Amino acid sequence: MSASQTGMTAAKIILGDKTAELPVMKGELGPDVLDIRRITNDLGIFTFDPGYGETASCESKITFIDGDKGILLHRGYPIEQLAERATFEEVIYLLLNGELPNAAEYKSFTTTLSNHTLLHEQIRNFFNGFRRDAHPMAILCGTVGALSAFYPEANDISLPETRQLSAIRLIAKLPTIAAWAYKYTQGETFIYPRNELNYAENFLSMMFARPSEDYKINPVLARAMNRILILHADHEQNASTSTVRMAGSTGANPYACISAGIAALWGPAHGGANEAVLKMLASIGSKENIPGFIEKVKDKNSGVKLMGFGHRVYKNFDPRAKIMQKTCHEVLGELGIKDDPLLDLAVELENIALHDEYFVQRKLYPNVDFYSGIILKAMGIPTSMFTVLFALARTTGWISQWKEMIGEKGQRISRPRQLYTGSPQRDYVPASERG
Ligand code: ACO
């Protein structure tokens, strides 16, 4: 039964001489929501919710977050269990299909993924069109959108089999595009995917292998990469996912929609934060400068934010940040990095911020990006690739959410309304007569 059918009680709104009954919809978990779909019809008004902080824009069965308790579930499974025990490929299967695969399903699914990792050879030429110093997010955004030119059948989104194939293609090809974007900026040879490697290993191999020598995958780094991918796989209706749904609601093909999601992720308030955290730590420089930096963050006129802190939904802690912090210590330990100045700085900064009244009052805690940059840097991933990696992992969530939306009955184009505060109607005056 859909959530809308279970509404039992209703809230009543009286506006002048008009009354509207708003049904209360109950989900499986989380707060109830008021169904306002008839409010304009009944009361002649719209609702105002800039940033959509109080608005449920869709029904979804994929991911659940309880921001106060720090809970994150994918299809019901806690993120801690998935990050600790699952492979990224299992999580892809889970998000896309709703259940974890059995052994036979897993084998067949991973084989299918491996069979789609290659890019059309014509796509190689795209890279040469970019400047060598292009940001890899620019390359990713453009190249993923351009995939639609290679799979025109994806424009027909009415067939479930075509939608599934597009999902597989996108998830399988993203690591290849991402790694090649990096190789291009380095002037290095593109490394082709290898079917015997798993998703995380394959990405590391395409990033770091060179044709002139054997590349041995460090299992610690592969495990950390697997975990980082899982931690970024999906996160409910965040800005980039909502962008994918918004673009998808028009019937646009999935490659175009994912490209839109990549663009939305790029900003420093969202996926660009992990890159911004490292830049921030570098600019702080040393522990003595932390108090001065914190004062700047608290000064509203400075425009400075503590990057990697705060979240629209998590107001207690971000469960992903906890796992990331633990992974960070593990990776640095395994790599023999005893005293990492950036990690020391991050730990000190976190400690000070967590006890500072400004952050406590506003419920600002480290988010997933606070520690991910330090791990990625230790793994040899350059800063400009951090957000690319996030996009690579989040493609699974985006395309699962897109598939869910397109598969719904009665799916409509997304079209919010506005509160207009501009000029009232006025008449055009020729330039010569304007004062
Ligand atoms: N540093 C300093 N102050 C902050 C921060 C921060 N990182 N985040 C929020 N605040 C302050 C706001 O200025 C505001 O203060 P006020 O009440 O005195 O005006 C208050 O805390 C509430 O913040 P909002 O802006 O209302 O929070 P919102 O939900 O709109 O923003 C966001 C969430 C964008 C994540 C914000 O916390 C932020 O910019 N953080 C830094 C960037 C970052 O780390 N982004 C990654 C998010 S997680 C992800 O995408 C994977």
Give the helix/strand layout.
Blueprint: E1 10-15, E2 18-25, E3 33-34, H1 39-43, E4 63-66, E5 71-74, E6 77-78, H2 79-85, H3 88-97, H4 103-114, H5 121-128, H6 136-146, H7 160-186, H8 199-208, H9 219-231, H10 239-248, H11 254-265, H12 273-284, H13 290-298, H14 319-334, H15 341-355, H16 357-361, H17 369-378, H18 386-406
The structure holds acetyl coenzyme *A (ACO).
Descriptive tags:
mainly alpha; 18 helices; 49% helix; 6% strand; globular; binds acetyl coenzyme *A
Number of strands: 6
**Portion in helices:** 40-55%
Radius of gyration: 24 Å
Element-by-element helix/strand order:
EEEHEEEHHHHHHHHHHHHHHHHH
Give the uncertain stretches in residue-range form. 1-5
Q: Provide the residue-averaged pLDDT.
A: 94
The number of helices is 18
Largest sheet: spatial strand order = 1-2-3
Structural class: mainly alpha
Note the main sheet.
3 strands, antiparallel
Q: What amount of the residues lies in strands?
A: 5-15%
Short précis:
With 435 residues, the chain is mainly α. The protein contains 18 helices and 6 strands.
How would you describe this structure to a colleague?
Helices cover 49% and strands 6% of the residues. With 435 residues, it is mostly helical. The strands form two sheets. The chain has a three-stranded antiparallel beta sheet. Strands 4-5-6 form a three-stranded antiparallel beta sheet. It is globular. The termini are far apart. Acetyl coenzyme *A binds at residues 269-271, 273, 297, 305-312, 362, 364, 367-369.
